[in-house]
Amino acid sequence: MQTFKGYRRENGKIGIRNHLLILPTVVCANQVCSRIEQQVPNSVAIPHQHGCSQVGSDKERTHKVLVGMGKNPNVGAVLIVSLGCEVINAEEVKAEIETTGKPVVWIDIQTEGGSIKTIQKGIEEAQKLMKLIEDTPVEDVPVSELIVGVKCGGSDFTSGLCSNPALGKAADLILGEGGTIVMGETTEIIGAEHLVAAKAVNQEVKDKLYESIKQFENEIERMGVDMRGGNPSPGNIEGGLSSIEEKSLGCISKAGTAPLEGVVDFADEIPGKGYYFMDSPGNDIECVTGMAAAGVHVVCFTTGRGTPTGNPIIPVIKITGNELTAKRMADNMDVDTSAVLQGKETLDEAGNKIHQFILDVANGEQTKAEILGHAEFSISRIGISL
After folding, report:
1. Are 180 and 303 members of one domain?
2. Considering only 52-66, 133-147, 152-166, 283-297, which range has the smallest mean pLDDT?
3. pLDDT at residue 175 is higher than 90
4. Of the candidates 135, 152, 181, which is a domain's last residue?
5. What is the pLDDT, as a whole number, of residue 237?
6. In this predicted model, what pLDDT tens digit does every residue of 89-147 receive, in sequence order?
7. Phi and psi at residue 139, to the nearest 5°
8. Using an 8 Å Cβ cutoff, are 2 and 143 in contact?
């Protein structure tokens, strides 16, 4: 049985990183959070543009994502910073994250008396939290505890021929060891959704998958736009992809061959083990954010054209099957599978290579995105601003 070194949380969940998360509840707290982060080494802040002028399901999504980021087992402690008059209730966010057993502190800018005083208080509290978690012991954990997201972005013709199916081989290895695979991007299974649905373990799962597609298509129709204006993107087309169907056929191969256990909504916690689909945008940063908020430990991100996207709390592994991209964007690429297209490597060998790198990252090796400080974070909006 293969294992990795993980951080055991009080609720039994396992983390592969031990972050102190500095969490603004509203856009107005971003600057304060960033200043605290600058003064507390190894902390991570997640500035965002939300938390005010939101109602209904749009507000609920922001709340869910913020709570999910705090609950992710890669986070050891959380410092919440609120303004004091936003629609997101900081006390509720704190209470929900505390159900994990991890330490959570909440400070408020208006209560503290302004930005400078809040930054000073925040630095003090963050340093205390850091001391609480810096000696968190690690233990040997079976691979069955791993939750791995699979994502593609900046795709080209090599994605469907090489990097996605190679990642699918790695996904099967993780699933074979009892782990969990989460695939997102509702927009990028269109035209191939019947192949994903065919793997569903029951009719309920199949129906929910089709409903996710229907809701997206209804929204596109309501807006009166043609999806092809943005997906495939200009870069996808320049890279040799002719249609969303062609892109989708390559996209779905990265999840492997296992049965589809369930379909979850954006940022919802993954309910079990096996292969799950998350109803999420195709937008790179929003999709990865939803996975992080759902409790995913690490995302494997294939790209033909190349993209530097990372995440504040989960490692993002960049995989390419394009030899030119591997060389041109060597700063950003972690795994090069282009040897498959050259006949020098089989898909199984490439999958084994990806699988081993996943385990290396779970054991603490940093991805290129982590080394370079790529910490992109974005919450998808589903409503108007008031």
Report:
1. yes
2. 152-166
3. yes
4. 135
5. 66
6. 999 999 999 999 999 999 999 999 999 999 999 999 999 999 999 999 999 999 999 99
7. -140, 160
8. yes
Given pLDDT bands bounded at 50, 70 and 90, which one contains residue 264? very high
- CB-side exposure of 180: number of CA atoms within 13 Å? 21
Cα dist from 254 to 33, 73, 94, 165, whole Å: 36, 24, 36, 5
Residues 103 and 165 in one domain: no
Residue 93, classed as helix, strand or coil, is helix
Instruction: State which of 114, 135, 156 marks the end of a domain.
Output: 135
CA distance 46 to 144: 29
Which among 296, 251, 258 has a CA at the least distance from the CA of 176?
Answer: 258
Q: Output the six-digit token pair for 120.
A: 């000073």
E strand segments, the chain: 3-8, 14-15, 19-24, 43-45, 75-82, 104-108, 138-142, 147-152, 180-183, 260-264, 274-278, 298-302, 316-320, 335-336
Contacts of 235 (CB under 8 A, 6+ apart): 154, 156, 305
* Residue 386, number of CB atoms within 10 A of its CB: 10
Q: What is the pTM of this model?
A: 0.95
239-253, 255-269, 304-318: which has the minimum mean pLDDT?
Answer: 239-253
Domain ranges, residue 161: 142-371
Q: Are 10 and 19 in contact (CB under 8 A)?
A: no
Cβ burial, residue 140 (10 Å; 0-12/13-18/19+)? exposed
Mean pLDDT, range 174-191, rounded to an integer: 95
Domain count of the fold of the chain? 2
| Residue 18, amino acid | N
Residues 128 and 234 in one domain: no
The verdict on 317 and 202 lying in the same domain is yes
Integer Cα distance of 79 and 127 in angstroms: 10
